[in-house]
Structures are given as C-alpha cells and as structure tokens.
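EI: anyone free to look at a 123-residue chain?
SC: sure, send it
EI:
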Amino acid sequence: NSYPDLKPGAKVAIDSRNPNRYFDPSAFLNPESGFVGNFGRNVVIAPGVATLDLVLTNNIKATERLTVQFRGEFFNILNRANFGLPSSAIFDPGTFLVRPTAGRITNTQTTSRQIQFGLKLLF
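SC: here you go
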C-alpha cells in the first residue's frame, strides 16, 4: 500500500504498444520498512481511449404518409484495441520481490467492432 522508490538515474518509460510490459517494473525499488517511497501517486499515465462510431441512414418514401428508414450503425469501426489499466502492484507483499504481472495489461476497455442494421417505419 506504500509508494515504491524510483532507482537512482532510472526513468519510467511507457511503451503504449506493448501490453505485456506497459512500464518497466525493474525501475523501482521496495522502500525500507517504515519509510514512504519517493515515487508519487498517479505519476504513470494510463493508456488512452479512442473509438470511432458511424451511423448511416437512408429514408425511403413508401407512400404519402409512410417512410421506411434503413439504418446501419457501426461501433468502434476502426476496431482499435483500447487497453485497460496496467497492474500497478509492483512488489509481492510477502516476499518483497517484483511480481511477474507488474506493468502488464490483461484486458481492454472497449469492445471490438460491432455492426447492427435496423429498419424503421415512420408514419
């Protein structure tokens, strides 16, 4: 629950394209017992989220009072993988060794591309 120490001369490099090692956990040291580490809170920036949604409609006049609307809805049309948050627990509390999952992203925040079609009657 405490803050880690940043190794002297080390920098926290973020690799936003590598979910297996979003940040390098070897840049941190476990602080001495009873001390708070020198690495602050909310310093590592999480991956961003970007999606593009598109709706295409076509209104067809069937009669004087009846219109048929065809809709095509595309969600996350570019099918971009939006990574979730990396594992922020760096050290194992029992052994004080670096966890193998530290800095690893194991999920995504958004769904993959989804397409749906609809038909609507307007009268």
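EI: The CA atoms of residues 91 and 116 lie 45 Å apart.
SC: 👍
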